[in-house]
Give the backbone structure.
Amino acid sequence: MTRKYIVTGAASGIGAATVALLKERHEIVFGIDIHSADINADLSTKGGRLDAAAKSIEICGGTIDAVIACAGLVHPIAKTVSVNFFGVSEYLTEILPALTKSSSPRVAITSSMASLMPNSSELVDAMLTLDENKAVAIAQGLVDKGHSEASLIYGSTKRAVSRWVRRESIKPEWAGAGISLNAVGPGIVETPMVANMIATAEARAAIDTMVPMPLNHYLKPRQVAYLLVWLTSLENTHTTGQTIYIDGGSDATLRGDDIWS
Ligand code: NAI
């Protein structure tokens, strides 16, 4: 059965690899990005998200079977909050009615290993209360304090998105409508986003300390795409609310074997 997919961040990296994999598998797929996509929209603004949502519903003829949300920024700036958290949560909430019409609706989001890294709890809480103005102001305050505070922004967006997934997934609007809602938490993936971070031996040594990947080291974007595509496939009937770490063993290395107590 051919299904209709929307992929955000489709112009590059993990999103582009996911579009390619879905097309190879003969799915119908429409990409969203700020440029070079079927739907060009800026997910950092409310207007851009609403426009992207309306065009997604229209291009899919009213019924969307699956969304894979990859658009994101890693920069230590306030806009990262708007793209990584609100560009996911608000966009998905807008298209919920079209997902609900599918007989097998699924959503998967790219969170990150960074969801387990140090963060600003104040910023995470502001995102989870869906107060974008407050969250952006807190993030700007971190930027103003300097690099080490600003570097908490990315991990905060990913912690918030993984918590949002857990919180929303079990609600009547999602689980009650048969929609699985999950995230993936990649380690380091060789995409333009991290090209500078892994360009030199010194940079790689620093990253490898922060994100140790004993199993097979760095990922190619396609390897993340396989998991995103499985999570949104018909084979996934019961996995929901999860952040699945696809990280070469980073999570197990950093958090150890006892994460349940
Ligand atoms: P990328 O930089 O190659 O692709 C990101 C895409 O998002 C770009 O095409 C960009 O134009 C789009 N985008 C950015 N801002 C946008 C906006 N305002 N509106 C619409 N589109 C926008 O990055 P990559 O590596 O493919 O990242 C994809 C996702 O995976 C991101 O959410 C990232 O945080 C996450 N991730 C990446 C990791 C890595 O090591 N590359 C590791 C863990 C998570």
